[in-house]
């Protein structure tokens, strides 16, 4: 990745933080997967929309092997990496995110992971790199998909919804449209001269799928937006995983669970490496609220759509767009929606 001069940096999405350094947030829900009460905690955590899971017993060897291979790839000559790009949407990408003009201080590999097509395995990157990279990706993806399914089963159990695979089947299905991303945010030394300003690595967005499982090295940078719009920094934890409720799960929970906006800021001295599994349903799957979450006589908050329709619409949008907006039902002027304004002020 080239080092950018000040004018070049100005060309990028530089954001101001009002000279208020974002504080490390200590309020992120933590779910201990070895706790017999985990299902109850997972439901609460999904209501918040972003949480950390610990004690999964995920082989550290899978993580270390994949991180080492990813770094070996990202540290290889630019011409070699470019042979695995541009992303269409899969493949190697640098600075450009998605097809609609978003940019960031990032390079990445985006791979699809449908269990039936295994098409990422035939991607040129795995032809030109030793077999060890491909097997590191395989091992990691199998284990992380299993974790995503187990978490979704805790969700259905915690909600008292039958069958318990009502959500997890969407990811274990051989047509599951999931994907996997390796992100590399190189350090940006110029940032030191830009006191009070931050460089966007990955712009603010929500993830469109059902669930995302993120693991990063110990470099901070990930931030989430709280309900009041404040951005807070997520303390990195390389031995744990962070879970994002995706837009699709927000819809399937009829708004009970929240798809939280997040972004990544670049660091001036340390590189950040993250690996994210995005668990998505088969393309033909209808994304509708689970009936027990709609409530007797109530309507779901969203129109009916398939994952294929939502995905298409997502890929026509910019990163920061509010994608679910197009699929919300317009508010009906029923009693239920009327704001009960007090007739008299108390003071
Ligand atoms: C700007 C874009 C990049 C993205 C596709 C999109 O048009 C809008 C959603 C973006 C996102 C965010 C979560 C994942 O990183 C991702 C792979 C996804 O499924 O949706 C990316 C897309 C991408 O990088 O291609
Ligand atoms: O790289 C990260 O830490 C998060 C990136 C992200 O949110 C994404 O790829 O969707
Ligand atoms: Fe994301």
Structure report:
Residues 175-281 form the Fe2OG dioxygenase domain. The protein is an alpha+beta fold. It has one domain: B-lactam Antibiotic, Isopenicillin N Synthase, Chain (Jelly Rolls, Sandwich), CATH 2.60.120.330. The chain has helices at residues 6-11, 38-48, 60-74, 78-82, 124-128, 131-159, 169-172, 247-252, 307-315; strands at 14-16, 30-32, 50-54, 91-97, 102-112, 179-185, 197-205, 211-216, 222-225, 231-233, 241-245, 262-265, 272-279, 286-287, 305-306. The protein has an 8-stranded mixed sheet with strand order 2-3-11-8-13-6-5-4. The model is unreliable at 333-347 (pLDDT under 50). The chain binds ligand L4NPZUNZ, 2-oxoglutaric acid (AKG) and fe (ii) ion (FE2). Residues 205, 207, 262 line the site of fe (ii) ion.
On the 0 to 100 scale, the average pLDDT is 89
List the strand order in the largest sheet. Answer: 2-3-11-8-13-6-5-4
Q: Provide the CATH superfamily.
A: B-lactam Antibiotic, Isopenicillin N Synthase, Chain
Note the beta-strand portion. 15-25%
User: What is the CATH fold-level name?
Assistant: Jelly Rolls
Oligomer state equals single chain
Structural class: alpha+beta
Bound molecule kinds, no repeats: the ligand C=C1C[C@]23C[C@@]1(O)CC[C@H]2[C@@]12CC[C@H](O)[C@@](C)(C(=O)O1)[C@H]2[C@@H]3C(=O)O, 2-oxoglutaric acid, fe (ii) ion
The global form is: globular
- Spell out the helices and strands N to C: HEEHEHHEEHHHEEEEEEHEEEEH
Determine the fraction of residues in helical runs and give it as a percent range.
25-40%
Named at the architecture level, the CATH assignment is Sandwich
Q: Largest beta sheet, briefly?
A: 8 strands, mixed
